[in-house]
C-alpha cells in the first residue's frame, strides 16, 4: 500500500496537481491520454494530480507544451517553486526530485554513514543537527525532506534497492546507543522487503573510501545516472565516462561484500553491542 503524505493545500506541488487536473478536464483529456504525452503511466498522472508524486522537469515542460500555458499557468514555474523549497542542498534536488523517483534500480555505497534512503528519523535528525550554523527549523525541514524521499520505498512499484555499507558504519555512534539500536533494527526490518538488499563490506576494502555514491538505472532506455557525495558540492550526472568509472568502482567494492544472510547477521550482532 502506498503511503500518502499529509499535504499542504498551499504548497506548489499541490497547486501543480490541481492545475494539471483542471486543465486536463477543460481539454476533455483522460489521464491515459495525458500519460501518453508525458511518456509515463496513468497511475503516475493520477499521483501527480493528487500531489503524491513530485513532478520532474520534463513533466513540467511537456505539460506546458500540451496546454500552452493556458490561463497563465506555467508548470515550469510551478516546478521551479517546488524545487526551491527548503529541505536539502540545491545540487541534490535534481536527483531527489527527478532521478530517484523514476529509477528502476538504485545501487548505493556508503563508507561512513547509513545511506539516506534507509535512515531513521532520529538518526537523520542527529546528523543534520551537526551541520555548522544550522538552525533547529532547518534541521526539521531537512528531516522532513529525507522522510518524504523515502516514500519511494513504499510505492506500489518501488525500485530495486541494492545497498553496500562499510562494516565500520555499524559501530560509528550517531546520536547515542538508543538511536543506533533503532537504526540497526530498521536495517534488519527493511531487508525483509523483497526489493531491498543490504550487504556489509569488509573494512579492509579501501577502494571505496574516496566517497559515497549512488547509481540509478532509469526506464525507457535512458542512460544511467550517478550521484557522488562531496564535503562541499556533490555531483549528479549522466556523463558516460563518469558513470562508467563509478560502475567500475561499485563492482570493485562489491567484491568485498558479504552475502546477504551473513550481512544481516552482522547487523544484528552490531545492534546487540549498542547497550
From TrEMBL:
PROSITE patterns the record matches: HTH_CROC1
Transmembrane segments: none
Database matches in InterPro entries: Cro/C1-type_HTH (IPR001387), DUF5753 (IPR043917), Lambda_DNA-bd_dom_sf (IPR010982)
Origin: domain of life: Bacteria
Domain HTH cro/C1-type: 20-73
Coiled-coil residues: none
UniProt protein name: Helix-turn-helix transcriptional regulator
Organism: Streptosporangium fragile
Amino acid at each position: 500500500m502506498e503511503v500518502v503524505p499529509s499535504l499542504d493545500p498551499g504548497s506548489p506541488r499541490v497547486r501543480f496537481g490541481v492545475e494539471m487536473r483542471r486543465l486536463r478536464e477543460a481539454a476533455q483529456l483522460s489521464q491515459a491520454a495525458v500519460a501518453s504525452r508525458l511518456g509515463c503511466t496513468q497511475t503516475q498522472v493520477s499521483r501527480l494530480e493528487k500531489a503524491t508524486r513530485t513532478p520532474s522537469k520534463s513533466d513540467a515542460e511537456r505539460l506546458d507544451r500540451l496546454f500552452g500555458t493556458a490561463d497563465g499557468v506555467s508548470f515550469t514555474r510551478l516546478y521551479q517553486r517546488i524545487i526551491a523549497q527548503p529541505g536539502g542542498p540545491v545540487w541534490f534536488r535534481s536527483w531527489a526530485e527527478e532521478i530517484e523517483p523514476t529509477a528502476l534500480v538504485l545501487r548505493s555505497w556508503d563508507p561512513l554513514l547509513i545511506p539516506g534512503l534507509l535512515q531513521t528519523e532520529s538518526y537523520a535528525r542527529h546528523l543534520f543537527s551537526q551541520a555548522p550554523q544550522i538552525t533547529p527549523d532547518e534541521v526539521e525541514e531537512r528531516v522532513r525532506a529525507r522522510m518524504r524521499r523515502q516514500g519511494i520505498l513504499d510505492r506500489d512499484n518501488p525500485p530495486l534497492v541494492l545497498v553496500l555499507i562499510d562494516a565500520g558504519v555499524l559501530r560509528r555512534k550517531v546520536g547515542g546507543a538508543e538511536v543506533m539500536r533503532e537504526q540497526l533494527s530498521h536495517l534488519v526490518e527493511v531487508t525483509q522487503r523483497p526489493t531491498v538488499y543490504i550487504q556489509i563490506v569488509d573494512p579492509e576494502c579501501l577502494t571505496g573510501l574516496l566517497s559515497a555514491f549512488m547509481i540509478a538505472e532509469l526506464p525507457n532506455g535512458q542512460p544511467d545516472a550517478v550521484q557522488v557525495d562531496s564535503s562541499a558540492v556533490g555531483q549528479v550526472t549522466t556523463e558516460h565516462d563518469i558513470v562508467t568509472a563509478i560502475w567500475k568502482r561499485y563492482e570493485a567494492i562489491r567484491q568485498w561484500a558479504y552475502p546477504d544472510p551473513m550481512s544481516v547477521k552482522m547487523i544484528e550482532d552490531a545492534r546487540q553491542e549498542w547497550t
